[in-house]
Amino acid sequence: MRQTIHGAEFRRMLISAAAAIEIRKQTLNELNVFPVPDGDTGTNMSMTINAAAADLRKLEDPTLEKAAAAAASAMLRGARGNSGVILSLLMRGISKKLKGAVECDGVLWANALQEGVDAAYKAVMKPAEGTILTVARLAAAKALAAAGENNYLEFVHEAALEEAKVALANTVNQNPVLKKAGVVDAGGKGWVFALEAMLSALRGEDVVVPEDLGSQEPKESADFSDFDNEDITFTYCTEFIISRENENDPDALRTFLNDLGDSLVLVDDDEIIKVHVHTNDPGIALQEALKYGSFVTVKIENMRLQHTEKVMSEQELSPKIAEPEKPFGVVSVCAGAGLADVFSNLGVDGIISGGQTMNPSTQDILEAVNRVPAETVFILPNNKNIIMAAQQVEGLTPKNIVVIPSKTVPQGVTAMLNFNPDGTLEENTQAMNASLSTVDTIQITYAARNSDFDGYDIHEGDYLAMYGSSLFGTSRDIKVLLRSLADKIRDDGKEYITIYYGADISTKHAQKTADLFAELCPSADVNLLNGGQPVYYYLISAE
Question: What gap in Å lies between CA 261 and CA 279, rounded to an integer?
Answer without folding.
Answer: 4
